[in-house]
Design goal:
Keywords: Repeat, Signal, TPR repeat
CATH architecture of the largest domain: Alpha Horseshoe
CATH superfamily of the largest domain: Tetratricopeptide repeat domain
Oligomer: single chain
InterPro entries: TPR-like_helical_dom_sf, TPR_rpt, Ycf3/AcsC/BcsC/TPR_MFPF
Pfam family, one: TPR_19
Distance between the termini: 56 Å
Number of helices: 12
Number of domains: 2
Protein name: Tetratricopeptide repeat-containing protein
Strand content: 5-15%
Amino acid sequence: MIYIKKITALGLLLITTIGFSQNEQASLNFDTQYFNAVDKWVAFPKKDTDSTYAYGFIYLDNQAGFTFNYETQFQIKEHNLKSIPKDATVGYAKYRLEPNTSLVAVLNKKQISDLKLPEQPEWLSVYKSGSNEVSYLKNEGFHFNHVGACHLALKPLLKAYGIQPHFDGLEFELAYAYNHLGQFKEAIPVLEKAIENNPKNFYFYRELGFSLVNLNNIEDAEKTYLIGIKKSDNDFEKSEMAVNMAQAYFKLKNKQKFDEWAQLTRLYAKKESRYVEYISLFEQNWDK
C-alpha cells in the first residue's frame, strides 16, 4: 500500500472543490457517484467563486477503499479543458472517499485528450496486482457493500465464490449483497452451506433469519434467529435479530409472539437504541 502524504494547503483546496456543486459547465455532467467512477478520470464540482476544477483519477485500493488520486486543476476555455501546471512543491495527494462525497463528472475521451492524460495512469497496475485472487475479490466486494453499492459487489464476490466458497468472510459478503438487493432466495443456499461449514458464526444466522423473514417464512426465521442469539456474544446483533422478529409478528398481529420478541429486544438493546424506539412505535400503533 502506498504511503499517503498529507498536504494541508491542498487538503483545504479539495474541501472546497469536493464539498460544493454549483453552476456546472454544460460540458461537465456531475451526475456520477464515485463508486460508479472507479478507474476513471473525474472532475469535482467547483464553487461559484472558483474558476478551476480539481481533477484526478478514482481507483479502488483493495485494502483502504475508494481513493481519489488528485492530479491538479483545469479551466474551461472555449469548450476546451486547459490544465493548470502542477506545483512541483505539492507532490502527490490521495484522498479516501467517504459516502457523503459529492457527485463527480467522468471525463470523456476529448476531455482526457485536452488534458494530455493517458487512458489510465501507469501506477494503477500496482493496485491491480492479484486482482484474480480470492482475497482481492472478496475485499473488492466488501468495499462495494460497505458503501451500499451491492449491485457492483456481486460480480467479484460470485467470481471468488466459484473459486473458494468458504474463504473467510466471503459467504457473509455475498449473502449480505443478496439480502440488500432483495434477492433473498439466492442468499439462502449460500448461508445454509456457510452454516454447515461453520455453525459457530452467528452472522450467518442473522443473515439467514433476515432472508427467511422477508420471504414470510416466519417459523423458520424464528428458529434461525433463536440459534443466532444463542451463539452470539454481541448484544447489538441480538437486539437486531429480536426486533426483526418483533416486526414480523407486529405485521401478523400476533400479540403473544410480538410481546416475546419485544421483551428480548429490550433485554439486549440499549435504552436509547432506535430498536427500542421501534418497539414502542409498534405498540403505540398496534390497533391502527
